[in-house]
Amino acid sequence: MLNPAYIIILFALLISFSSNAVKIHVGGSDGLASIREAVMKAKAGDTVLVRAGVYMEGSIVLNKGIVLLAEKGVEIDAQGKEPLIVIRADKSVVKGFTLKNSGYSDIAEIAGIRLENVKACRVEDNYLYNNFFGIYLSNSSYCILRNNVIHGFARTETSSGNGIHLWKSDHNTVLGNKIKGHRDGIYFEFVKNSSIINNISEDNLRYGLHFMFSDNDVYRYNIFRRNGSGVAVMYTRDVEMSFNRFEHNWGSASYGLLLKDISKSQIRNNMFLRNTTGLYMEGSHSTIIEQNDFRENGWALRILGDCYNDTITSNNFIGNSFDVATNAVRNMNYFYSNYWDKYTGYDLNKDGTGDISYYPVSLYSKITEENPYALMMLHSFFIDLLNQTEKLLPSITPDQFLDALPKMKKLMHDTY
Amino acid sequence: MLKVFSYVFQEVFRNRMLVFYSLFLFLLSSGLFYFGADSSKAVVSLLHVVLLVVPLLCIVFATIHYYNSLEFIELLLAQPVPRRRIFTGEYLGLSVAMTLALLTGLGLPVLFWDTSAASLFLLAMGVMLTFIFTSIAFFASVSSTDKSKGIGTALIIWFYYAVIFDGLVLLVLHYFSDYPLEKVVLVLTTLNPIDLARVFVLLKLDTSALMGYTGSLFQSFFGTIWGILFSLFFLLLWLVIPLWLSIRIFTRKDL
User: CB–CB of A416/A225 below 8 Å?
Assistant: First the structure.
């Protein structure tokens, strides 16, 4: 166990360190007039404490690792001209600011807070309002973005930026942020070994979450809601997405989650609620989709013919218009032990598993896949008749798409 | 005409079958609303029922009614009343009574549980289909003097619109899938009152999003005020043309 003497020594060390760090005040009666001036004066490791007020002084560039703290009610307004805070030194901290009106540019990616080639920085508790990009990281690692609220007013995809944008960065943590009204809520490109936890990304113009070439990332306990096209993730392997909610993405081309060329990944315990297409898979392989809930989607799962070796097991499919749609003739994926609310089989030996297989691709689903116009016959009596007949004597629907061990009762598992 | 209307209305309104019809709808819809967790699902189930049962009942009931009241009509024809008036009186009396039955059976639960746009549209389409299929039934009845033949024709008409037509549409979509079919689909929809009613209600449900491209085509067409007027116009045509034809036959017929 720790010796009390050690603790005292440690404490003494801490005091000596902190006594080295200088605290510089901005605003109020005794503070400096501008944040820029304070940043210029400060040395690495110093703290700049900004007092309440509105500051309009252009970009603030952190060239050394200082702690930039705001008291309650500090507002920096760029008046639509330039980026607000640019971090260019390791171990910088920006905390508690309200950053407004970065302005928009066709050539530069102007952001509320921009981190360039840095390590171990923290961006916390800021409120970013009406900026082009919210927080922008390029080539930065071991940074933490926590509890920021980012609110944009994207109108068109070309004239708007992303809420949290990471490019070529690794080992970052994005935690507890709320993003609203940007182009993409969270955007990752070439981001490795990062974790995205507890964020809420909603009402964004395009995607709630959008990542490409970002291997070994973890997404947990996030909510992606009412985004223009849902969530799209592409060209990535070894991703874990668990306990997230993908909900209310109702639009003619909306997806709860779109997977394109995703491999060796895990999608567990997520809730897909009321999306036009719950989960869309294209060119994905060796991915495990387990213990998710698909509820009240148009298409719960849409799996294209170029997917293989994926495992779909122990999920609940409840109240979806179509359970599974596919353009494939042969099935190269594994479906087993899911609960399908449309299953009408029996269980004579009472082991909880149905004795006859369930075919999740209905005839109508097959027809609409080939001919989308046939969707105009949704809820037609003739279609019901057709589906029932096909169920009794399957002849057109792909008979390889089957769950041989369908569950009789809804599976109990946790979702967020 | 008003006198004929009130006679017929009173006679039909006392009919036991109509009471059963109303009661059936009432129990079904309040059951669906009460036990269903989600009212939009109840509306979908009710949509299935309304599209199937309302036309069927109207067509069967109206043909039987027509043949049963032929003697009464002959009696009226002995009076100095124009045939046209007698016929419209018959038609209105019957269809208004059926509409009232529908409104009590379906309308009350809807007003009580769920007054969303979708369910109000469903109700409106129910009323529309009642008028349309009564009119079609009358057309089938005046076309032949033989009762069994008339009822047979009426049933075939119902079967055609409720089931066969959609099958034919599916065939067309299948065989011509290489061509752009947007307008064809629109035109095909207007050729069947049941399909028109279904698309109308469907677009008020949020499942319409799932129709994707087709859905957005329909939405951009039927969703606008012009689209609504357009489809109402076609629904009215479905009411007026058979009625007009049957009045024409009725006034010239040797009874």
Answer: no
